Amino acid sequence: MPEEILTTQPTAGPVPAQEAKAFLSLRKVFHVAASSTIPLYYWYHPFAATDAQARLQVVVIAAIGFCSFLVFDLLRLRDRAFNSFIMKGFSFIIRRTEEKRFTGATHLCFAFLVVAWFFSREVAVTAMLFLSLGDTAAELGGRYFGRTKVFYRSLEGSAAFFLVAFSVALVILDDWRVALLGALVGALVELFSFELDDNLTVPIGSAVALTLAFHLFQSLPH
Fold first, then answer.
1. Average pLDDT estimate for 168-189
2. Structural domain of residue 19, as residue ranges?
């Protein structure tokens, strides 16, 4: 989620600092809470006896979420009045730039569905948390400390993403080499997700990188 959108809205002019700060706080709390629920459940799965059962439950939940948000977005984008109502009523969690495109929730549910279906539990959970925690760190880091711009984002935000993602991966995967490579790729994917929604690119790109890193380092000593 690009940091720059918080301070400047192309369709409505500059956003006052107080309004932007409130928007940031509410949306980030919602984003972290919502996007962390699935990976945390997948990791601890209190209502599933096995990892396989938890995987099936996560796939079903993500699929239902994706289909629901997809239908919602299609209806919203076809009906101008309904779209206007949604954008006004849920402006505290929906970006103005999503007015004419799918929301981040649709992309997120699809990405979580893909990583839960195609990747191992450890990789899927790590990639999901890269988005919920790493992306949030990138946005906050870019917002408050961003000085060195790379197109519309900042190296400081990317550094914040990397530090959080590396910490998460190290705890879950217990291999600093895999964590290092996965976090680095995740940060680069987040940094260069220009036209594509990083709710989609970060989890999938990170899962691919983590899996390749495992294959690369599994035969080498720690």
1. 95
2. 3-217
